[in-house]
Amino acid sequence: xxxxxxxxxxxxxxxxxxxxxxxxxxxxxxxxxxxxxxxxxxxxxxxxxxxxxxxxxxxxxxxxxxxxxxxxxxxxxxxxxxxxxxxxxxxxxxxxxxxxxxxxxxxxxxxxxxxxxxxxxxxxxxxxxxxxxxxxxxxxxxxxxxxxxxxxxxxxxxxxxxxxxxxxxxxxxxxxxxxxxxxxxxxxxxxxxxxxxxxxxxxxxxxxxxxxxxxxxxxxxxxxxxxxxxxxxxxxxxxxxxxxxxxxxxxxxxxxxxxxxxxxxxxxxxxxxxxxxxxxxxxxxxxxxxxxxxxxxxxxxxxxxxxxxxxxxxxxxxxxxxxxxxxxxxxxxxxxxxxxxxxxxxxxxxxxxxxxxxxxxxxxxxxxxxxxxxxxxxxxxxxxxxxxxxxxxxxxxxxx
Length: 400
Fold this sequence. Notes:
By secondary structure, this protein is an alpha+beta fold. The protein folds into three domains: 7-120, Immunoglobulins (Immunoglobulin-like), CATH 2.60.40; 130-310, Immunoglobulin-like (Sandwich), CATH 2.60.40; 335-399. It contains four helices and 25 strands. The chain has helices at residues 7-20, 312-339, 353-371, 377-399; strands spanning 31-39, 51-58, 61-62, 66-69, 75-81, 87-95, 98-101, 113-120, 122-124, 130-142, 145-156, 160-162, 166-167, 173-174, 177-178, 185-189, 198-201, 204-207, 214-227, 233-238, 243-251, 256-258, 263-268, 275-283, 288-294. Strands 16-19-11-10-21-24-23 form a seven-stranded mixed sheet, with helices on one face. The radius of gyration is 23 Å and the shape is globular. It starts with 6 loop residues before the first helix and ends with a helix.
């Protein structure tokens, strides 16, 4: 069985479990989850007799799953469900060999009914709707090397799931492509992924997972090291897909980075977790981004060279700290746009759409960190207030 395309929801469940603390609770009333399967492809019919599975969790423990058959209109229902704060659910179905699921479903205090929608889609072998919403470079200095953790988030702006056209093994096909720079060593691709998910190509790698419609519905992690010469070392990327934004987080070790397409946003964090943030936007297919690094690292700031795969620092940032850095960048995007030449900015009828999306995502990430106990209340309130203030500001500007 292909994995459920809701792995991020499972991570959310884990955070919920940590936040719940496992305290004893009084028996909760039985709950009902009612939902509907909807074909999100324009003009496509809903196939009959789809089986919907409800997977329950108590904390991080899997509960026995339940199944129901959707009716002619795609409706389904599950009853007799636990509604306690440590219970969560995911509803999913399979269509054309691809699993589609909801985000985590959780009853609020006193709530006994939840509504859920499971979107399915027709498929396409064309990648014209595929783009990259974000590339994050997390770069740390090691002995004579730059350790790079590269996280690419792919989006699908169409209404069909992209399944690729080139077959590899069995029923699998290659979908999105990506490649490390030519001088990369000790290259590792998402070690935690399913065996056989990635395949090597003549110029890099390709994924075999389908890309579901929506923003950042597929993520790949590429880790490598490149030899570092303090006089000048360059990391060059040629974009294979339209890319909305690139973020670079360089460890604050004395090494300086420069690039014509990137703007320095300042230092974030402190001590061993201090990183200098850079941001660039709107890269077309075929564009080249060159990052140049110079300077010797300060004594005591280098780390041991990784033995392969993502560095410990990279995992820590991606698991939690990176979200905080991204929030700082979300607040900086308005300044970035103001600093760009006006000729490069095209007018739009909805000027706050992109930034609103970034701010809302940042607020959601902040809420998750606070609920999981990974952020103190003072920092949470201060950062959330700043994000919300900017959101209200751009909404007011859009109405002028």
